[in-house]
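User: Fold this, then the next.

Assistant: Folding the first:
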Amino acid sequence: MNIKNLSGWFDIYKEPSLSGRYIHLEHILPLFDTLSIHVEIELLGTSENNAPIHLLKLGTGKKKLLFWSQMHGNESTTTKAVFDFLNMLIDDTNEISQGILASCTLYIIPILSPDGAKAYTRLNYNQIDLNRDAQNKTQKESILLRDIIDRFQPNYAFNLHGQRTIFSAGETKYPATVSFLSPAGDKERTITPCRKIAMEIIAEMNTVLQQVIPNSVGRYDDGFNINCIGDTLSDMGIPTILFEAGHYKDDYDREKTRVFIFYALVAAVDYISEKNIVGNLYENYFEIPENGKCFYDIIIRDVMLDKKNVDIAIQYTEELSENDIKFIPKIVKIADLGNFYGHREIIGNKRVIQNENVTVEVVPDNEMLKFYLNDELFSTELRKS
């Protein structure tokens, strides 16, 4: 897949009405009017708080692909990329789109957890993690997803998520900007035929992404949990690809990562449409390094605190406020952090550190919006691209 073509397509098809981290039902419903000319839109049912959940269907091909995004409501990057991809697919002048729709039928649930999306939380209205409810199916959203799986019996499943800024691609200085997983279907993590197929597709996406984010593609841990939907699907023999949209430098709105997810979606679906995939190239999947946890949002290095020379790690917590996501800097660790990296690093040169708010101590769990190193004032305010 040609990167120049992908870049040009993204510029053309990016959905301008979707941006930032806070994406919920009210943002996507207006888009259905335009899409409905080309896409079959079905109301599947409602969430636990009676918000509508929709299924979008397009294409006429025999290969059936099922996608769902925002199973965790605060993981919105893939939703943006899905609508970018939809804009490309409905362009009947695009030859790649024509080929995909002739070979494949795509079923897309753009927001599986509308209540979680509105509240900007990982959990649904009943405070249940839908990705731990695949077996018990205690929630309406879980039942709807399983009903769709049983109804259409997809040949491929795309489980679209987002991940925290802590992850690295291996134990390295490179952030895991995008991560993938072919989930295990048993506790032995057997490399089954369906996993091999998913692994081959992931390897193809990695080949494409290495051209734009070299060394920043990770492989998510494949520890088995049958309560997770991906593990359940692998157990059922359905090739399943987990996407994790991660961090790119200064990209806390995940607008750059959105681009790379778009590239990956196009590359994967085009590959499926053109190939008879049996998993012969699965071994390339293992060239992708397994994710480490080597990052903090900010590391303040080599400072004096209580007469000790330490490093201080700060992590942003995300809070919904006035229909926007606020990033609150909190101290999470004080130690020698020589084996970790900061997305932003401040060198203290053994200066004494003090919170600007002198009533708040420099200790874990406390906020630190601004601080002094001797007499010089620094801010932990988020730097966005």
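Now the next one, as you asked:
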Amino acid sequence: MASAAAKYPSFVIPVPRDASQTAEGQRAYEVYFMEWAFHGSPAEPIANAELFQEPQTSTNPQISTVLFTPLQEYKLRNSFATPYLVLTYHTDLARSHGVVLLRGEITPSSGAAVAANGDSRYLLNQEDAQLLAMGMQKFYLWKDEHADGAKLLKAFHENPAEFEWEGLLKHADFSA
């Protein structure tokens, strides 16, 4: 997933909304812009290490962060847009224990914004946060470069004229 993210550091993930929101009875979607950032490799944990010992070169993968921002917010404010969800992959134990820890943080509301479910404490509800995390995996976690998610991700970056929104919505459907 990290190698695909390094090559394709941004994408869009649709989150389905109630079918009653459109006049034609079609399912509506809210689109989120996602972007990856990498922060360097953490030092490997050492038991009984000297407090002031020089850190050794790490063989762990880089720590990565994924920001999810509503596309409308991103278009309006660009780099000043507030991400609604931040996922951080902590790789400290990747080599020693074979584990990568994930921390997800939903941005608290400032009081004016209200999440889709009416919860005014956060900008995003937990269900939408889970859908965004699963959507990210659908498009970045693939074994075959010819998988639908991989094709859409590549088209988004390498050939935007061939990127199909209909294919994105079809592939992002979580009901199937």
